[in-house]
Amino acid sequence: MSKGKFITFEGPEGAGKTTVIAEIYKRMQKEGIEGILTREPGGIRISEKIREVIHDNEYKEMDGMTEALLYAAARRQHLVERVLPALNEGKIVLCDRFIDSSLAYQGYARGLGMEDVMTINSFAIGETMPDVTIFFNITPEEGLQRIAKSGAREQNRLDNETLQFHQKVYEGYKLLLEQYPNRIISTDATLPLSEVTENVWKIISSQLISQENS
Ligand SMILES: Nc1ncnc2c1ncn2[C@@H]1O[C@H](COP(=O)(O)OP(=O)(O)OP(=O)(O)O)[C@@H](O)[C@H]1O
Ligand SMILES: Cc1cn([C@H]2C[C@H](O)[C@@H](COP(=O)(O)O)O2)c(=O)[nH]c1=O
């Protein structure tokens, strides 16, 4: 039985998730809140290896279903090795992407179908779903522009998909917001970084307070 809180962060490329989560994690540490910061795909060595394979620009021939299965395999290992142990110790788990990325990217944008992608993932995650998911709301155009402008990281196989693909990802997320209104909270990711961080911190604090009172 999980005792901690599983908080995931979602959104299009360049939405600001990684930057904001790092700030949130620092604040948690300052406040003495025990937690971990991790990411998908990755977070532990096997899943980081799988990440390298999925994102390699060389593998243009990768089949969509193979891609979905690889994300699910990386997710499974990360869940059992890193996420569940932390939750069982009562920690707050901040995770950069989780199941909703598979639903939006592979299920909707790749066209595999959200239900089928959920079925594959049920095998990987069982009953474990995030307690709360924060959606960084920004158009793919604006997010991709940020990445191009910063030049801070290499563009991977997914980044290099067409703009149309990224627009479908965004549409997929919008559908998920409708489907899971109690779990997914949208935040305006176009605001200045300090404001986005403050808004995300408010959402997380209110979740932690509601947990204390339950
Ligand atoms: N609110 C903001 N306003 C302007 N620039 C921002 C903001 N948030 C982040 N950035 C910048 O946008 C770029 C992408 O941010 P970041 O890597 O945090 O996004 P991400 O959501 O993790 O992207 P991805 O999922 O594609 O890795 C970085 O250069 C970051 O400094
Ligand atoms: C978990 C997950 C991720 N993706 C995609 C989304 C991004 O393009 C990359 C991850 O890169 P980031 O810089 O760490 O955000 O992978 C996906 O398509 N499906 C998934 O399940």
Automatic annotation (TrEMBL):
The lineage of its organism: Bacteria, Bacillati, Bacillota, Bacilli, Bacillales. PROSITE patterns: THYMIDYLATE_KINASE (PS01331). It catalyses: dTMP + ATP = dTDP + ADP. It comes from Sporosarcina luteola. ATP binds at G11, P12, E13, G14, A15, G16, K17, T18. Belongs to the thymidylate kinase family. Its EC number is 2.7.4.9. GO terms for molecular function: ATP binding; dTMP kinase activity. Phosphorylation of dTMP to form dTDP in both de novo and salvage pathways of dTTP synthesis. This is Thymidylate kinase. Residues 9-199 form the Thymidylate kinase-like domain. Gene3D superfamilies: P-loop containing nucleotide triphosphate hydrolases. GO terms for cellular component: cytosol. Keywords: ATP-binding, Kinase, Nucleotide biosynthesis, Nucleotide-binding, Transferase. GO terms for biological process: dTDP biosynthetic process; dTTP biosynthetic process; dUDP biosynthetic process. It is an enzyme of class 2 (transferase).
